[in-house]
Specification:
This protein is an alpha/beta fold. Helix content is about 35%, strand content about 25%. It contains seven helices and ten strands. Helix 4 crosses helix 5 (about 140-150) and helix 5 packs parallel to helix 6. The two termini are about 30 Å apart.
Length: about 230
């Protein structure tokens, strides 16, 4: 589903974000990316979504080399890849319902599709009863659920989550991770970059640790500190 082949990334300011990264993530897998700040987690996610291009090597998504992908095809790639951020990035002037609908509308979906699919997504993430509210009227957990619904409404094959529990309390963090696990169980490939040690240790999924832009460890059913237990 996702393949990195000897990927390197150097930013224009000279910072080496990724070095010699070889990684394969299978269809339907749930994977945690861990490591300290500045170790390359967000950069790796951005390469999957072709938000940035690697300096060297190749990234493949769903059998397509992103190196050879014409610019005109990037929007179609991004329909396959949903993204969830730490700070939600919701449109504050739009309601919960409208935030999710907007993600469909920008792809040219019909009004009929919007009316059919938005309620399903809000029901899936447990905030259908908040549909008419605005983001500033929601709790942090509810805002993240709204963001997840928006990222899923186009039925992506892959869901990328960059510190999805970073602004949430422990109980809400656990609820969000349980939701991501349910989404993964439906067949979506889920990749979560996180500092949340308790979540990683409890869920025991595949854990990839980045250090100085390189893959330091890769373990099935791993812990945050790979090699323990």
């Amino acid at each position: 589903m996702i393949v990195f082949r000897d990927v390197g990334l150097v930013y224009p300011n000279g910072v080496h974000a990724l070095s010699n990264v070889d990684l394969e993530i299978g269809r339907g897998e749930f994977l945690f990316l861990v490591g300290g700040s500045g170790q390359g987690k967000s950069s790796l996610l951005k390469c999957i979504n072709r938000e940035i291009d690697p300096t060297s090597g190749c990234v493949e998504v769903d059998g397509v080399s992103l190196l050879d992908l014409p610019a005109a095809q990037i929007p179609f790639l991004r329909r396959k890849v949903g993204v969830v951020f730490q700070d939600f990035k919701l449109l504050q002037q739009k309601t919960v319902w409208e935030n999710v609908a907007y993600a469909l509308q920008v792809t040219g979906a019909s009004s009929r599709d919007v009316v059919r699919r938005v309620p399903r997504m809000l029901e899936l993430v447990g905030i259908a009863h908040k549909a008419k509210m605005f983001p500033y009227e929601l709790s942090g957990g509810e805002q993240q659920r709204n963001a997840i619904a928006r990222s899923l409404v186009n039925n992506p094959l892959i869901l990328l989550c960059d510190e999805p529990t970073g602004n949430l309390d422990p109980e809400t963090s656990n609820e969000i991770m349980a939701l991501l696990a349910r989404i993964n169980a439906k067949g979506t490939t889920v990749v979560v970059a996180t500092h949340n040690q308790s979540v990683v240790d409890r869920m025991r999924r595949r854990v990839v640790r980045l250090s100085n832009g390189r893959i330091a460890h890769d373990q099935e059913r791993g812990h945050y500190h790979i090699g323990l237990g």
